[in-house]
């Protein structure tokens, strides 16, 4: 049995908000905080019961007791000696001060007090700092700061009142970001506001369990207190929104409330209290009750803003850009130059977009949506309209740019730039089926009322990852101009036939011939003799037949058919033993493996515009550095040291820097969501039955293939997913209803 006082140096693993336990590293210290053994290295594993409600943070002092063993561990391929402690008890001796340090450093009220000075105050005064600030003891503050800074800090602190709030929140396990938000919002009224209704903390992203425990233990809130019921409804609304809905019918709300409050008991029949709580809770502004159900207030504001943007364009005067005869002349010229002939559906879509300020252009894979856009751009150019092309994913924006010969950007990058548009401009959003209500709301706030909007996409492909529905909801409004393309022009044959069948909810008859254009290779969800996934092994065998032209698309990240499993197996069987990409680990004072080898395909998971990379960019590691030499930047010559070099899918060879590692992952297999908007000659799709599997996912995966698609796994599960209603139909939103009611109000 070991007992030590440790100062936390780093968090290795921690469950969300700290509940469920923590693994942290620490240095042994004495009662004054001096390190007793600089060479000692302790790793403490403590469960949630041992830690209680306290969040472990760097800088804290913990008195830890438990069984300890010295172990030689393999960390990134290298052996490291450390003491591992299974904590049977853990007592927080001294808070880290992170709440007060961050509050002083980040709050603009404390001018010229950065993190260094704030840390000096805490290190010098410790927990006494709270009392010093509360009493405006300038003399004590001046022992650390200049007299002028000390007076300024004391005056600024007076705006925020009693420090008990920070101490409450830290003692109850709330993170420093929440404490800072609460104090910034309520200022000196914070204690009074929390006393009136502790469930106000929910609005600052605090967890229900934390807030409810604080309300009941610290403020004595009864189980059936109206404030608790209103707080529970607010929490249910947040969970509804997190699940993708923007509104909840009464039955749905009750399901979420049961998850918050638990089942009814003989002493707490909360279902009878909900109608009153809904009525009384309207005053706090956290949710709205209307004809469309109960909505989180934020969701209602976003949907109404988008509805207003759509309706203002639908009802605008003089929307037509030119007479029909002039449009027809431009289309004839376009057809002659491109050597194509537009069909009736495509021509109608162009006419609609020419005549209306807001229009939808929809259709499945291969129906010629890009051809329509290129023809439409002739009309916009002739009318002096600037075209702004946007797509949700980086790869989709890249393909949009390549297909049209015009610049395109991701929606995220456009929003980040924050440039407002007005005048003779049209914004064209491709792959619009995946645009969520948050992105659409933010986009609409940047567009003047005279900016035209075109949304292009396929409602039978993947729905948004984020909350709400945009394209799907708009299609349900008869007043919205819709150019629907049904005739497939890009490709035909077996893949097209299967895709059409899947899109219609009919499972196609597929052979098991791995040489065919499309096939289903049955494979059980079992383990091989070596303990690996049989599905992953089968996928690997098929991948090896033509790796240069193949992309593996998985429905999920984990599981036997998931990205992580397949990537690990593919790497182990293809690039294991090749030169590894390494980086210096300051924590272990040695070279560490990064998880990448020479020849590995890699996926970029974040937009890195300064490096020419987008979220979804794919490449291959073509060179690994022996010694990390600096990259010449044209000035001082040592901007950063490359670890390796990747040849990306745009044909450019770029260095991999250490700061990029967290945003790169193996790319043998990627998720279908990452693949939307892209295509490859050959696609392999592993499938098993799970909650994420539905018709739209299978259809999207199949239509990513240009020449061959091989599906591997459970055919019964795939058939059931295709024949069932897609998950998008269960998502509850109010956008279409709001557009209809807004149109009626303006009629």
Can you walk me through this structure?
- It is a single chain.
- This protein is an alpha/beta fold and 747 residues long.
- It is built from 28 helices and 25 strands.
- A hairpin with a 4-residue loop joins strand 20 and strand 21.
- It is globular, with a radius of gyration of 30 Å.
Spans where pLDDT lies below 50 across 5 or more residues = 629-638
Helix % is 25-40%
**Proportion of residues in β-strands:** 15-25%
Assembly state (oligomeric)? single chain
Structural class: alpha/beta
Shape: globular
- The helix tally amounts to 28
Query: What gap, in angstroms, lies between the N and C termini?
Result: 79 Å
Strand order of the largest sheet: 10-9-11-12-8-13
| Largest sheet geometry | 6 strands, parallel
The Rg value, from CA coordinates, equals 30 Å
Beta strands, count = 25
Overall pLDDT level: 87
Set out the fold topology.
Elements: E1 2-14, E2 22-28, E3 42-46, H1 48-51, E4 61-75, E5 78-94, H2 98-106, H3 115-125, H4 128-134, H5 138-141, H6 147-157, H7 164-171, H8 176-186, H9 190-196, H10 208-218, H11 226-242, H12 250-261, H13 274-281, E6 287-290, E7 293-296, H14 297-314, H15 324-338, H16 344-355, E8 358-363, H17 369-382, E9 386-391, H18 394-404, E10 408-410, H19 411-417, E11 425-430, H20 437-445, E12 452-457, H21 471-475, E13 482-485, H22 493-503, E14 518-522, H23 534-543, E15 550-554, H24 563-574, E16 580-585, E17 590-597, E18 601-604, E19 618-624, E20 644-648, E21 653-656, E22 664-666, E23 669-671, H25 672-675, E24 680-687, H26 695-702, E25 705-713, H27 715-723, H28 735-746
Parallel strand pairs: 3-5, 8-12, 8-13, 9-10, 9-11, 11-12, 14-25, 15-23, 15-24, 24-25
Antiparallel strand pairs: 1-2, 1-4, 2-3, 4-5, 6-7, 16-17, 18-19, 18-22, 19-20, 20-21
Helix pairs in contact: 2-3, 2-8, 7-8, 11-12, 11-13, 14-20, 14-28, 15-17, 16-17, 22-26, 23-24
């Amino acid at each position: 049995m070991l007992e030590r006082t440790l100062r936390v140096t780093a968090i290795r693993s921690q469950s969300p908000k700290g509940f469920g336990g923590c693994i942290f590293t620490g240095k042994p210290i004495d009662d004054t905080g001096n390190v007793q053994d600089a060479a000692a290295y302790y790793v403490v594993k403590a469960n949630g019961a041992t830690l209680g409600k306290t969040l472990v943070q760097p800088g804290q002092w913990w008195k830890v007791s438990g069984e300890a063993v010295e172990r030689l561990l393999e960390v990134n391929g290298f052996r490291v000696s450390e003491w591992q402690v299974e904590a049977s008890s853990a007592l927080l001796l001294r808070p880290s001060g992170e709440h007060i340090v961050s509050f002083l450093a980040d709050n603009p009220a404390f001018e010229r007090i950065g993190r260094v000075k704030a840390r000096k105050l805490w290190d010098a005064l410790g927990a006494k700092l709270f009392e010093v600030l509360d009493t405006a003891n300038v003399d004590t503050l001046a022992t650390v700061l200049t007299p002028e800074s000390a007076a300024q800090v004391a005056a600024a602190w007076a705006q925020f009142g009693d420090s008990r709030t920070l101490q409450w929140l830290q003692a109850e396990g709330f993170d420093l970001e929440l404490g800072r938000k609460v104090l910034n919002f309520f200022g000196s009224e914070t204690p009074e506001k929390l006393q009136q209704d502790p469930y106000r903390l929910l609005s600052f992203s605090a967890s229900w369990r934390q807030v409810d425990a604080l309300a009941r233990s610290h403020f004595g809130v009864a189980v059936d207190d109206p404030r608790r019921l209103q707080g529970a409804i607010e929490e249910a609304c947040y969970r509804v929104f997190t699940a993708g809905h923007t509104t909840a019918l009464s039955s749905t709300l009750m399901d979420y409330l049961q998850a918050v409050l638990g089942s009814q008991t003989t002493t707490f029949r909360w279902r009878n209290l909900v109608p009153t709580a809904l009525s009384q809770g309207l005053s706090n502004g956290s949710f709205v009750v209307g004809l469309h159900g109960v909505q989180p207030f934020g969701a209602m504001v976003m949907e109404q803003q988008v509805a207003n943007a759509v309706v203002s364009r639908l009802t605008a005067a003089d929307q037509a850009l030119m007479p029909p005869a002039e449009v027809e002349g431009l289309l004839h010229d376009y057809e002659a130059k491109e050597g194509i002939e537009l069909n009736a559906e495509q021509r109608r879509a162009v006419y609609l977009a020419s005549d209306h300020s807001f229009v939808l252009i929809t259709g499945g894979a291969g129906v010629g949506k890009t051809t329509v856009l290129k023809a439409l751009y002739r009309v916009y150019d002739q009318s002096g309209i600037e075209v702004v092309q946007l797509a949700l994913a980086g790869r989709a924006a890249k393909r949009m740019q390549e297909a049209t010969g015009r610049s395109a950007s991701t929606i995220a990058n456009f929003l980040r730039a924050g440039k407002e548009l007005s005048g003779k401009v049209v914004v064209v959003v491709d792959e619009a089926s995946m645009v969520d209500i948050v992105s659409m709301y933010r986009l609409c706030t940047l567009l003047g009322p005279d900016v035209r909007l075109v949304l292009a996409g396929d409602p039978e492909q993947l729905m948004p990852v984020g909350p709400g529905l945009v394209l799907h909801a708009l299609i349900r409004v008869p007043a919205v101009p819709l150019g629907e393309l049904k005739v497939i022009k890009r490709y035909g044959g077996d893949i097209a036939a299967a895709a059409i069948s899947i899109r219609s909810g009919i499972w196609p008859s597929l052979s098991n011939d791995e040489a065919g254009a499309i096939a289903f290779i049955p494979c059980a969800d079992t383990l091989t003799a070596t303990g690996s996934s049989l599905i992953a092994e089968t996928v690997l065998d098929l991948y090896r037949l033509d790796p240069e032209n193949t992309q593996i698309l998985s429905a999920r990240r984990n599981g036997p058919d998931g990205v992580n499993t397949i990537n690990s197996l593919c790497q182990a069987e293809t690039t294991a033993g090749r030169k590894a990409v390494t980086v210096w680990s300051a924590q272990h004072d040695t070279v560490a493996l990064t998880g990448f080898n020479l020849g590995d395909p890699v996926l970029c998971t974040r937009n890195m515009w300064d490096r020419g990379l987008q979220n979804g960019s794919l490449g291959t590691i073509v060179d690994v550095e022996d010694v990390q030499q600096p990259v010449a930047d044209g000035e001082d010559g040592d901007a950063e040291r490359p670890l390796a070099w990747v040849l990306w899918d745009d044909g450019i060879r770029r260095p991999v820097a250490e700061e990029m590692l967290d945003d790169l992952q193996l790319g043998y297999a990627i998720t279908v969501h990452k693949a939307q908007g892209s295509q490859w000659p050959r696609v392999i799709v592993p499938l098993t039955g799970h909650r994420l599997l539905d018709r739209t996912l299978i259809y999207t995966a199949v239509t990513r293939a240009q020449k061959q698609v091989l599906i591997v796994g459970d055919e019964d599960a795939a058939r059931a997913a295709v024949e069932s209603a897609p998950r998008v139909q269960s998502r509850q939103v109010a956008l279409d209803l709001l557009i209809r009611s807004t149109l009626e109000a303006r009629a």
